[in-house]
Amino acid sequence: MFSSLITSRIVATVSALLVILVGCGAGIWQLNRADQKIRLGESLQAKLQMPVLNANTDSLSLEQASERRILARGRFIEAEAIWLDNRPRPIPEGGAGGAGQSGFYLMMPLKLAGQETVLWINRGWAPRNNLNRIELPPVDTADEVLVIEGIAFAHPGRVYELGQKADVKTSPRIEQNFDLAAEVQTHGWKQMPFIVRESDLAKKDGLVRNWPSPTNGVDRHYAYAFQWFALALAGFLFWLINGFMKYRRELAVNGDRV
């Protein structure tokens, strides 16, 4: 039986082994991704219950502020805005429609009131004009001191980037990713070591802020994991059944010879 299943079927055995390894490996990776999202969601929910920080009065590091609620009072520097391209429309958990729509995140520096410090704000999402990439959507920016409420993050999220970084002298600045350290070098100003994702849903400024939960997509990861494990099982069963059928044929032939 060993010869019928393995020795005489080296190519089939190796192929089946590869299918099993790939299927199991991809399935485990999907389960790990789901677990990461669940832990991130739990961490965020726990930090949201903590007291609100104040960017104007608290001296905050990235570790202290990360995923915490923050209030900031200041005035936007509209001329230094950065539009992050290829960002999908944020859809909250349980939401539907428009999930595949591409657009921009509007990153804008906020000069904190009474200070020379700048805090970068992810003001929200706006749709892109598919016919004219550099035609930006209309967004209202008040020329006055505002109070911004949001959640602190290390960055606004990254996407795969091809080519060279955009020239900061061009206007408007449309880029793929945002780099806090690079902005310090470019402007030479003092800035907070994190960005704040604005959370005011009621503000009517032309931007969408229906930010999804970190646990969005967990069910999809479980579904993908099931598919990969099913593929691995199918590969094993196909190899095993065909091996047994070959073994039975060999027994029948040997019986005829006797």
How would you describe this structure to a colleague?
- With 258 residues, the chain is α/β, with parallel strands linked by helices.
- It has two domains: 2-34 and 219-257; 50-213, no CATH class.
- 37% of the residues lie in helices and 23% in strands.
- The protein contains five helices and eight strands.
- It has a five-stranded mixed beta barrel.
- Strand 4 and strand 5 form a beta hairpin.
- Helix 2 (10-48) runs antiparallel to helix 5 (218-257).
- The chain is elongated.
- The two termini are 19 Å apart.
- The model has no long low-confidence stretch (mean pLDDT 85).
Large-scale geometry: elongated
Look at the helices and sheets and give the structural class: alpha/beta
- Indicate how many domains the architecture comprises: 2
**In what range is the share of β-strand residues?**
15-25%
Q: Could you name the ranges where pLDDT drops below 50 across 5 or more consecutive residues?
A: none
Oligomer: single chain
- Tally of DSSP β-strands: 8
Q: Over all CA atoms, what is the radius of gyration?
A: 27 Å
Average pLDDT works out at: 85
Largest sheet: 5 strands, mixed, barrel
Write the element-wise H/E pattern from the N-terminal end onward: HHEHEEEEEEHEH
Proportion of residues in helical segments: 25-40%
Through-space gap between termini:
19 Å
Number of helices: 5
Please list the strands of the largest sheet in the order they lie side by side: 2-4-5-8-6
